[in-house]
Amino acid sequence: MTTAPAETAFHIQEPLWKIRLRIAWKGLKQSWALFTENKIGLVGLGIIVFFGLMALAHPILMHTVWEPNIYDPFIGNDPTILQHPSPPSARHLLGTDPVGRDVLSQLMYSTQSEFVLGLLAAIVTVTIATSVGAISAYFGGALDAFFMRLADLINILPFIALLVVLTAFFDFGMIELALLIGILSGFGGTTIIFKAQALTIKVKPYIEAAKVAGGSDLHIIFRHIVPNLMPLAFLNMMFTVTGAIFSEAALSFFGLLNLRMSWGIMINTTQAAGYLLGGWKYWYLIVPPGLAITLLCSAFYLVGRALDEVVNPRLRRR
Amino acid sequence: MLKYIANRLLQIVVTLFVFFALTYFILDAQPGDITLQYVNNPKFTKEQREALRRRLGLDKPAYVRFFQWMGNTLRGDLGESYQYRKPVMDVLLERAPRTIFLFLTATLIEFFVGYWLGRVLAWQRGTGLEYGITVVGAFFYTVFTPWFALMMIYLFGFTLKWFPIGKFLDVTLWRAAPKGLTANQIFINLLLTMTLLAVALVVVYYLTRRMNPYRASLFRWSALIGGAAIVVGYWAASPVAKYAWDILYHMALPIIVLTLINFSGTMLLTRTTMLETLREDYIMAARAKGLPERVVRDKHAARNAVLPVFTSLIISLPFILGGGIITETVFSWEGLGLTLLTASTTGDIPLVMGSFLFIGTLALLAHLVADIAYAFLDPRIRYA
Amino acid sequence: MAEKPLLSVRNLTMIYKTRKGPVSAIDDVSFDLKRGESLGLVGESGCGKTSVAMALLRLLPDNAQITGGQILLDGMDLTTLSEEEMQNVRWKRISMVFQAAMNALDPVYKVGDQIIEAIERHERDIDPAEARKRVEALFHLVGIDPKMADRYPHEFSGGMRQRAIIAMALACNPDLIIADEPTTALDVIVQDQVLRELRQVQKQMGMSMIYISHDIAVIAEVAERIAIMYAGRLCELADAVEIFKRPRHPYTVALMSAFPSIVGEKRPLVALGGEPPDLLFPPPGCRFHPRCPRALDICKQQQPPFEDIGGGHYLACWNPAPVAEVQS
Ligand SMILES: Nc1ncnc2c1ncn2[C@@H]1O[C@H](COP(=O)(O)OP(=O)(O)OP(=O)(O)O)[C@@H](O)[C@H]1O
Ligand SMILES: [Mg+2]
What we know:
The complex is a heterotrimer.
Chain A: H1 4-10, H2 16-36, H3 39-63, H4 68-71, H5 103-139, H6 141-156, H7 159-169, H8 174-187, H9 189-202, H10 205-212, H11 217-253, H12 263-272, H13 283-311
Helix pairs in contact in A: 3-5, 3-13, 5-6, 5-8, 5-9, 5-11, 6-9, 9-11, 10-11, 11-12, 11-13, 12-13
Chain B: H1 2-29, H2 46-55, H3 62-74, H4 88-123, H5 128-142, H6 145-159, H7 171-175, H8 183-207, H9 213-237, H10 241-277, H11 281-288, H12 293-330, H13 336-346, H14 349-377, H15 379-382
Chain C: E1 7-18, E2 21-33, E3 38-42, H1 49-57, E4 64-73, E5 76-77, H2 83-89, E6 94-97, H3 111-122, H4 128-141, H5 158-170, E7 176-180, H6 188-205, E8 208-213, H7 216-222, E9 225-230, E10 233-239, H8 240-245, H9 250-258, H10 297-301, E11 307-308, E12 314-315, H11 323-327
Parallel strand pairs in C: 3-8, 3-9, 6-7, 7-8
Antiparallel strand pairs in C: 1-2, 1-4, 4-5, 9-10, 10-12, 11-12
Helix pairs in contact in C: 3-4, 4-5, 5-6
Bound molecules: adenosine-5'-triphosphate and magnesium ion.
Magnesium ion is lined by residues 49-50, 99, 180 of chain C.
């Protein structure tokens, strides 16, 4: 028996990262197939894509067909119209607001910041929750107890009331708000979910194998446990985005945030100018932003639910 | 069981302390203080400002003030509201019952509606009905609350004129009210009767829990209807019926809105946990015993699925109370949430702290009560 | 044919519809079971034993479909009954001890109440006190303190839960009791006790029993007749002694040789190469042929008939092992 054939048989011709990539790609394709089975999830994804296109279209429109001093979301004003707010017309598809700015332009402009806010909050949440969850599950003991008590504590706080108090007394912009929401939900309820999941991963044989092979704690946590939390993380991001967009809109509605423009501010402007009591007559001031907030929040939520069925086999039909 | 409750109590006390401290230091960390308002006021000299600062105790270090404040708070003294020129405690004691009554009612209705629908939904897996309800549910779950509430006010208040708009009572009616009758008395009495009814229903539930589901649900429904009839009869016969009705009438739309906003969370979660529970072996065993589908669903699957749903309700209680700020604002319902918001925007710091404390404490208490109720639902905790 | 069988399964065929296609979990399975008889059903993991049990009770998941055959209980075809009629058969006529019996008790109700629930379901106007007495008697029978009836499942140990489940299966005095690997989760000593009690009670009460296991050593203790299952089909069925003394199917021979100690005889150990087949794409002809040391050309094309080769010994094989080879 010669050793040569055995060697060629085990010889790895592709670099490791390529194999990893291929496996990841295959997994992705399978998950996508499962995801597309759920029509509701696809609807959600469609809505997100639609808003994404709106966000991208705004700067393009501003540079091409929209005259900047008429359509600017902050300082635009249409001099050809005498009375503002004005109902939808060919020039202003969704009318103008009490100060004479184009509602559609405001709506599209705000979409960008909603995405930034939602994604930033989600990334912060998930980064904190995965690391803390994995560390708590892996080490257990006092560290675990501390983080879990902290999570309980944050869970018991009345979230919106806290945000109201904080934003009323401190200057909060979009980024600060995203960070705050990310930190609160990252150390709060989300951690508990991630820790529970990490605990089930911790007892898997390959973790034991990695330990026996002499992997350091950090190596095991970040190379073996955290990657296995990724599907859950992805799923959770969707729900956090919903929460973040909602919180921003509510706080803006109360006029507590230091922002120039957002969907919530659009409603706030309408209210401050007294047009809320006008009933249906001024629908174009309140329906578009309200519906946009609702739709985008639902879309992320629906995608999250559909992902849940992909990630959690117990919910699948077959 | 006792150990479990003691544990929870201890946890609540610690949390409450941390919460108090947090509240205090967040507000203490904000730049400037109340006296800065008067900086540009020519009638106020610098000396007068200093005197005011001293009177308000703003010249001492933070931790001293914290413990002073803490001591006062425990004695029930929350300071004086800048805005109302009355003790904060008085303002809040007047407003708390409105919030409690509104949210207790709405949460109870929401939970039962959501649980009931979720149960049906799980059994309709894969049908058009399921997709329909899921989409509608997701809409209500994520709808932008202030906007939705406004739309409801437009629809039912302005257009259809079914319900009154804003406030929690009709001022003209109450001007003619007998001397000494306040809305608060009515709120508190309503709260009491409702609690009694709830206790009675829980007792009936407990007594029928082991019956076959058909008989049990017969008993439960008759208890519910009978109990409700007694309560309605009692109030109708009371001399203040007119005023109680006025309050309930004003409360209807907020309750409908709160229910619509919150039920879908419970419903969607019930569906999910039901689907998970249906895969359990004891469900298979229940079927194998020859039990009819409805008994399997209601007595076994739903009864187990309620545990995680209830847990999630416990977790969301603080959130519901906090989110009440939005509902109260839109409906101009002068409860704790609206008080917190207006105090925050006008810089009435004692009132902010007071109402924040009230909301937080309420949330904690609700949490505690729900936790204990949970223990009764799950024998694994009850007999641990 | 002196006595009519209690249960007669005729050409039962069942598939699971899956995303990738139909899984042929039961294919053309036939067997009879007399009153008071105990039948062992043996086969590798995944060969369809649980599926057979579930098909008998018609407790199959939504994606399962019985595509052919009959299940005759005293001449009544269970496959054609309505759901309500089937509910009356369950537990009253056929009861079951589940494979995952550890989790077969609902955690939020007292164990005794769960048994009473079954009794009250089938004997509508039974006096509660009498039902209660029966539960205590059953607990006594399976060796649990009757006081435990008022406890919750989480307060039971694994072995006690197993016994409680057996007590529950006996509660309505069924004609047939199906035990699906009831002891796999227990340690060996408890396993043995539970097994013996089950067998004893079954004999005492004159019930029939189908005992399912992948472990032929266990089956040998409890079964009078043994059916060998492979990849959704029965390949051999005979009296226990006959199967051990004169196995004919090459798969049975391989199984026996894996447990030489049972009958205490020395036999050549036949190694079984290969994997059990994927039931999504079962091999044509005899499903065992890819692994069979005695496979012929016909095995690859034609399914062998499942026929009596004399004395109630059923066999499905084109090229059975000679009797002498094993007996030596
Ligand atoms: N719900 C289902 N959907 C699709 N395929 C299934 C389903 N349940 C079982 N199967 C498949 O049917 C075959 C038979 O399964 P079954 O559970 O009857 O095997 P078993 O002999 O009881 O195995 P074990 O000894 O492991 O319990 C297996 O190949 C299994 O993968
Ligand atoms: Mg099995």
